[in-house]
Amino acid sequence: MTTSGTGIFYDGLTSDRRKVAVEIGGDAIEVRTPDGALLARWRFTDISPVATAAGDLRIGLANASVAARLEIHDQALAATLLTRTKPSDRAGLTDRRTRAKVVALSLAAIATLVGGAVWGVPLLADRIAPHLPVALEMRLGAAIDAQVRQALDTSKGGKPFECGSGDSPRAAAGRTAFAKLVAALEAPAELPLPLRALVVRRADVNAITLPGGRIYVFDGLLNKANSIDEVAGVLGHEIGHVAHRDGTKSVLETAGLSFLFGMLLGDFTGGSAVIIAAKTVLHTAYSRTAEAAADEFGAKLMSKVGGDPQALGAILLRISGISGTAAVVPHFLLDHPAAQQRADAIAKIAKPAPMGALLSPPEWEALKSICTEG
Amino acid sequence: MTVIDRVDAAATPAPPDLHPPSPVRLRFIGDRGDYWRLMIRGGALQAITLGIYRFWLFTDMRRFLWAGTEAEGETLEYTGTPVELLIGFLMAIGILVPVYALLFLASLQFGILSRLSGLVAVVVLAGFGQYAAYRARRYRLTRTVFRGLRFHQAGSAVRYAVRAMLWWIPIGLTLGLASPWATANLERYKMRNTFYGNLGGSFAGSGGRLFGRGILIWLLVVGPLGAALVGAVAAIDWPAVTRALGQANAANIAIAMQGNDGIKIGLALLASGVGWSVLAGVVLYPGYQAIAMRWWLGGLRLGGAAVASDLRMRRYYFAYLRYLLYVVLFSIAYAVAAAIALALFRGAMPGRVDFSDMSLWRSGVVIGSGIVAYVIFILGVSTIYQVVVKMRLWQVAVESVLISGIAALDHVQASDATSSAVGEGLADALGTGAI
């Protein structure tokens, strides 16, 4: 076994090259000038082999503030030295054991973060949203409102997007009926912020809630509704979103998801597909929970005001029968629970009640035709 | 001449001059096969760890490239560690999250701030990007060891970021013609603050020279577009356009426009101008990269040592052509493998696969395997790019370097200064990182 030879030494204080004599001892390597003066004595436990190519060995001191280096070009001497030092990839690259450890720890981190996304994010959003100032949600609503109006307002022929805004007696009657319905539902709902409900000229059978208490009931819903209770049921559901601060929650959840998927995870070439998939699956899951909660709120509200709490389930089933396309989309990509599931859940919450106490028949007729004029 | 030869020569009596008067050429001694293995494994591990492995991969890439770069038998050494990068990244996130939150809140304010918030966000984040790039450079330099001494970087990242952003104004006003001077100015700042031990650097490249070498490419890309624009403006019958736009209805406007030959010619001219610009831009891009790299290398100075480069443009083009070829071959192989996998999958299913029956697990499998297939393909192409283009360009650039006056590096004193990896983390999170 070769235990002595020559090497090239850089003392880490100057860039001077020195040819040195190298001696491998019991627990350390000694570096001397050709005259025998001791330049350095490095203990094996402190030595770390560092990057070098072309079969030469280069070593340095681990955790040293100066980058002193010893290069050994004698293969036999290098081999001896390597048996004494800590095992390490001579190229200085990440070795197999480190890789395995990194992968294992990363998988654990991913599991934790996914768990955080599934349970932690909605929980945090639930806790934080009620404490955020209402003014913030109103501003958010105003910002989103402008965009939503631009996207939804496809009305032609000069009729305004908003129904019942005209001066005709018919428009005024529709407006009064709708205001009465909203007021009847708003008072017992005990909302943290004022409602701004409107009927808008859109043919879709739908209603939407924006942050800041803005509710848009689409004209198409009024046309498809068989009773005032069905409209009230939908409105009660949307009021549920307002009561739960779902607009604020959704912003918090989106931010939380973007932090977990996009900032912490998924930053690699091709990772965008993984990010989009994870965000979609998780966001629709949050949304399904929020929808179910809004259904429950709406049903209870209907019971309070003397409406039929099951009317919402009835119109949901009828609408899903009309469109019928939802069956192709897998459950985990839907942002609402399936209609049958929702109707069943509502049926469990509240018993059916007599209908028709919310608006008189003429008022209901006035509401139905709120969009026929400007 | 190897190190041993040189030291032996030094040991023998009275060598009049250690350094040959002729310039010393850098060598690249990294093995491409090793780099392929590193990158393929790194790509796979990145996908498995959803990107967390990148800190280890980037560190390995740098160690490989540094260790492969050799001057006079002595290689560079990268001493940064993946854990430093990881911690730097986490600290950067701690800085960026409040910034993002503030930008979001600003967008909710009414009035002027809300309308400007998009612009403010772009400027703030771009400024952060420049700041991060400068600090990341400091991190890399302090982790670069040559002959037992570290490099380091002085100067202020804030000052650098302000300087870089102020340059955008003349660059924008001159349609990019001012960018050579901007590049030269920023390189001067960086190199003036670059040190090897106590030996200071400088940058001798001039913006005018880069402009002179690049102007032909700029003219070939932008010139025809400008000519087409002028031609189109001249060809279009403007009164007719005004009359057409006077029509109340969109369909009538279209009909009136179509009936007008001048408009047709104008639009055709514009389309061909844009088409030419895009095509010329793609074809000439490697050429401009080579010109800029040769100019940049030729301006580097470290004390009395001066770099010259004899970089050949065609070597850049060969790298890109080989990349195209490899991507085509990889795509064919991938398509064949995917077809086989699909056939096996169908064979394993009882009866025909009915994609309209989207049960939970089945749709999960279909969507999941689609994502996996996409990630594998994109990672494959990116790995090919990293090896066939990125590493190759590094090698070509290194091998083109001739250093005169390398004796200046012989008796340099250490002047240690370390730095944290926060800049690297910011650069990573903002996507302004570099090798």
Explain what this protein looks like in three dimensions:
The complex is a heterodimer of chains A (374) and B (435). Chain A is α+β, with helices and mostly antiparallel strands and 374 residues long. Helix content of chain A is 50%, strand content 14%. Chain A has two domains: 4-84, PH-domain like (Roll), CATH 2.30.29.30; 123-368, no CATH class. Chain A has helices at residues 75-84, 96-128, 134-152, 169-189, 219-224, 228-243, 246-260, 271-305, 311-323, 339-349, 361-368, and strands at 4-10, 18-24, 28-32, 38-43, 47-50, 57-61, 69-72, 196-200, 207-210, 214-218. In chain A, the strands form two sheets. Chain A has a seven-stranded antiparallel sheet with strand order 4-3-2-1-7-6-5, with helices on one face. In chain A, strands 8-10-9 form a three-stranded mixed sheet. In chain A, 36% of the residues are buried. Chain B has 14 helices and twelve strands. Chain B has helices at residues 3-11, 32-48, 54-67, 82-108, 112-142, 157-173, 179-192, 207-235, 238-245, 250-258, 261-299, 313-348, 360-399, 422-430, and strands spanning 24-25, 27-28, 69-71, 74-75, 77-78, 144-146, 149-153, 194-196, 199-203, 300-302, 305-309, 401-404. In chain B, strands 1-12-11-10-9-8-7-6-5 form a nine-stranded antiparallel sheet. Chain B has a three-stranded antiparallel sheet with strand order 2-3-4. In chain B, strand 6 and strand 7 form a beta hairpin. In chain B, helix 11 (261-299) crosses helix 12 and helix 12 packs antiparallel against helix 13. Chain B is globular, with a radius of gyration of 27 Å. At the A-B interface, helix 2, helix 3 and helix 8 of A face helix 1, helix 2, helix 3, strand 5 and helix 4 of B.
